[in-house]
Design brief:
The chain has about 325 residues and is mainly alpha-helical. The chain contains 16 helices and no strands. The protein is globular, with a radius of gyration of 26 Å. The relative contact order is 0.10.
Length: about 325
């Protein structure tokens, strides 16, 4: 159940202001770690601001959505929803200057495929990517454990898709609305836009689902108010009705403000700024990163050599042993 899940306990927040404060904290932490020597008045000439980081994350959320839509074989909705959750969670406490969103994005999607049991191999996965697929494989596999650590290994996600199906079944059963399936396209479009906002970090899956269904109904000029007040909640649930109505209104208001068309000129400027200020230790194109990876490989080779030598020694020792009481001695 959602109410007892790690998602409810650890990954739901009271307001967008609370989320923005955490993102600002992550931004400042990175700057103080890697740019403590830079004058405070000029630090943002070199580093990204928290708002600029937020813009970049939003842009890569659009890329995440588009990549999943084009993916072959076709992805399930739960994989896409789970990948969005992972991506959003990661950048609550991490800076894009430390971990580039294009690398975390594909890692989130790959991990979501595993968790949601959408069975594709790493080779099948990177076949959907453009560019150097061997490099992409290394990036994804190197970042996978980091991602899980930053998610506190809390990987189970409650998406709004199941509550939507439950609502549609209930409307078909207990509501007089003609052909409730007409609500599906509008509902799905609303949820797609909702994942480009913070609503999944602020409201429960059932609240987001209800907001989506009611939005779809209003677009068709249908009224489900009596269904919600009389049928869905009834007398016993009337005490929670005001809270629910407020949540639905807030969700619809946030989703309505989504701008899914980023400014391309702004994108280019932020990309250039990020390339200058990103942490070279986590940049696969930097010499520091390449040397670090080579050192890890050398360390693995040394460990393998020591284990092999020890195993050979034990094997040779065993071959030279005689066991008293063996059939040969008898």
């Amino acid at each position: 159940m959602f109410s007892t899940s790690t998602q409810s306990k650890n990954w739901m927040f009271n307001s967008e202001d609370d989320l923005n404060k955490l993102r600002e904290k992550a931004n400042l932490k990175h700057i103080l770690t890697y740019g403590g020597h830079i004058n405070e008045a000029t630090r943002y000439e070199f580093f990204l601001t928290a708002e600029e980081e937020k813009i970049m994350v939003k842009r890569y959320e659009i890329r995440l959505r588009d990549f999943c839509k084009r993916f072959q074989p076709p992805m399930t909705r739960c994989v896409i929803g789970t990948a969005f959750h992972y991506f959003k969670r990661f950048y609550i406490h991490n800076s894009v200057m430390n971990h580039h969103p294009k690398e975390i994005m594909v890692t989130c999607i790959y991990l979501a495929c595993k968790v949601e049991e959408f069975n594709v191999s790493i080779q099948q996965f990177v076949a959907n990517l453009k560019g150097d697929r061997e490099k992409a494989t290394d990036i994804i596999l190197n970042n996978e454990l980091l991602l899980m650590e930053q998610l506190n290994f809390q990987l189970s996600i409650h998406n709004p898709f199941r509550p939507v199906e439950g609502l549609l079944i209930d409307i078909k059963t207990r509501c007089t609305l003609n052909d409730p399936e007409r609500l599906r396209p509008g509902t799905e479009h609303f949820l797609e836009r909702a994942f480009l906002t913070d609503v999944v970090l602020l409201y429960s899956p059932s609240q987001v689902a209800l907001a989506a269904v009611l939005h779809a109904a209003s677009k068709l000029q249908e009224n489900l108010d009596s269904y919600v007040t009389d049928t869905l909640f009834g007398v016993e649930g009337s005490g929670k009705l005001a809270e629910l109505i407020e949540a639905v209104r807030a969700i619809r208001s946030i989703v309505k403000m989504v701008d899914a068309t980023p400014d391309k000129n702004q994108q280019k400027l932020l990309d250039k700024k990020l390339e200058k200020c990103r942490n070279p230790e986590n940049n696969p194109d930097s010499e520091i990163y390449k040397k670090k990876m080579q050192a890890l490989l050398d360390e693995d080779d040394d460990l393998y050599h020591r284990i092999s030598t020890r195993t050979d020694s034990l094997d040779n020792s065993a071959l030279g042993m005689s066991v008293s009481g063996s059939p040969e001695e008898a």
